[in-house]
Amino acid sequence: MNTVSYLKISELTQQTGLSTENLRYYSDLSFLEPVKRDENNYFY
Predict the structure, then answer these.
(1) Which of 41, 24, 42 has its CA nearest to residue 33?
(2) At a CB cut-off of 8 Å and minimum separation 6, what does 32 contact?
(3) How far apart are CA 4 and CA 28, in angstroms?
(4) pLDDT for 14 beyond 90
(5) Alpha carbon distances (Å) from 16 to 1, 3, 11, 38
(6) Residue 41 has pLDDT above 80, yes or no
(7) Which of 7, 20, 35, 40 has the fewest CB atoms nearer than 10 Å to its CB?
(8) Backbone phi and psi for residue 43, each to the nearest 5 degrees, phi listed first
């Protein structure tokens, strides 16, 4: 069985070493796109 796990931006910053600002900038340029958005507006 395959399970999908999603990362919050804070978890992605820890794993990549990139800052939150950099990740948001890349998202604004459409280099990164959230896979889903939760009802609490968290991007995953």
Answers:
(1) 24
(2) 23, 26
(3) 24
(4) yes
(5) 27, 22, 9, 22
(6) no
(7) 40
(8) -90, 140
CB 15 within 8 A of CB 23: no
Do residues 44 and 36 lie in contact, with contact meaning Cβ atoms separated by under 8 Å?
Answer: yes
- Region for residue 4 given its phi and psi (left: phi exceeds 0; alpha: psi -120 to 50; beta: otherwise): beta
CB-based contacts of 28-37 (< 8 A; 24+ apart in sequence): 35/6, 36/6
Decide if pLDDT at 43 tops 70: no
Global pTM reads 0.63
Tell me, rounded to whole angstroms, the distance of Cα 25 from its chain centroid.
Answer: 12
